[in-house]
Amino acid sequence: MGTLALAAKITHVPSMYLSEFPGPNFGCREAAINGHKEIDRRCRELGVDTIVVFDVHWQVNSEYHINCGPKFEGTYTSNELPHFIKNMPFAYPGNPALGHLIADVANEMGVKSRAHSDTTLELEYGTLVPMRYMNADQHYKVISISGWCDWHDLTESGRFGLAVRRAIEERYEGTVAVFASGSLSHHFADNGRAPEFMHKVYDPFLEQVDRRVVQLWEAGEWNTFVGMLPMYADKCWGEGDMHDTAMLLGLLGWDRYTAPAEVITPYFGSSGTGQINAIFPVTPLPAQATA
Predict the structure, then answer these.
(1) How many CA atoms lie within 13 Å of 291's alpha carbon, on the beta-carbon side?
(2) How many CA within 13 A on the CB side of residue 39?
(3) C-alpha to C-alpha distance for 131 and 76, rounded to whole angstroms
(4) 137-154, pLDDT tens digit by residue?
(5) DSSP designation for 19
(6) Which CA distances in Å does 85 have to 13, 66, 249?
(7) Distance linking the first and last C-alpha atoms of the chain
(8) Residue 42 and residue 38: Cα distance in Å, rounded?
(9) Nearest of 275, 244, 248, 274 to residue 259 by alpha carbon
């Protein structure tokens, strides 16, 4: 029925928005913004009608949650970094039908989930920042899924990702892209030291682990990466405990996924954290991943 056309791990650093304005950081995130624009270009070529974002800035403590309101519109200021993102306007259409299909399939698979279409839930900046550079013309419908899951298991998040794919391919009439919106290592600069880490990773250990992870991705060594994911998320302060990444890999085949990632924006440091834009090619699900 439907088509999963593109999957990617993307950055959403708030300095992307900050870099639009005159000042010392003007233009500093051009590469990241251009990476989003390239992913948008490919989505349009593939006929994508809806973007699903696993957003690590939406924290939940129980179950998996899908924000599939019919429309999102407003002016956003980050309560986390109000000096980076303030008064940012946004307006995007939603896709309630697909959101409910995802919840239905997940629940049938035993992964407790809830779709929220009659809601006042707002979008978080893990969704809003990339949509600013990919969807300013409201070309795509948008669904945001909670990706900061403090009390969840990474393997279960992988199964949730599989549910997203099944909902798209088995029950949806349309073409979808799915993004894991979050960092690699995620240790912010200590208070008072932020300026010196604007373009750096917090510690050489974190950067070296991140760079090795990117090598594994580019080599398609997903079995190795999945095996190290829980420890990586823990020891390198993975953003949202890296549930967004687990969901994305579940979508693609988990530890049996083998396609090499394509780096669109090379790895970079931002406020102490490790960032990247990378496309994970969509391939047929291995038989073991469909059970």
Answers:
(1) 4
(2) 35
(3) 13
(4) 999 999 999 999 999 999
(5) T
(6) 10, 24, 30
(7) 19
(8) 6
(9) 248
